[in-house]
Amino acid sequence: MPDESGDLAPEWTKLSNNVCGVLHGHREAASMAERFERLGWRSRSSSWCGYEVGTTWCEVELEPVDGQDVLLNGVVDPSRFDDLATLLIRCGATFTLELYDENDNLLRETHG
Q1: Is the pLDDT of residue 83 over 70?
Q2: Cβ–Cβ < 8 Å for 20, 72
Q3: Domain of 68?
């Protein structure tokens, strides 16, 4: 699955957050951000412990909570929701992901 490096495509920049999840058992967002980078995504520090990672079809914040998990939230092209889940599996993550519509209705949920 090739990942397009670069900024989030304009059609997705206007969306409110439509994807959220938890990366279970990951204490640091930095290690997850590094895994995304190795797969061709851009990454930058966004807070003391958080990171923003993205590509042309997805941009998410990774923020550690409770020293046990990392929260993930941001925007994904809805047609690429499964690609995001596949990428998390490739990164070795155990996760829960949820996709929402523009009215905050849950459309899909997946676990890995």
Answers
A1: yes
A2: yes
A3: 10-111
- Sequence-separated (6 or more) residues with CB below 8 Å from residue 44: 51, 52
Taking the CA atoms of 11, 13, 18 and 20 in sequence, report the sign of the dihedral they define. Answer: positive
Q: pTM surpassing 0.70?
A: yes
Q: Which two tokens stand for residue 16?
A: 């409110």
3-state SS, 35-91, equals HHHHCCCEEEECCCCCEEEEECCEEEEEEEECCCEEEEEEEECHHHHHHHHHHHHHC
The domain that holds 51 is classified in CATH as: 3.30.310.180
Residue 27 placed within a domain: yes
Bridge partners, residue 100, by sequence: 106
Is residue 16 very low, low, confident or very high in pLDDT (cuts 50, 70, 90)? confident
Q: Give the type of residue at 26.
A: H
Q: What is the mean pLDDT of the chain?
A: 89
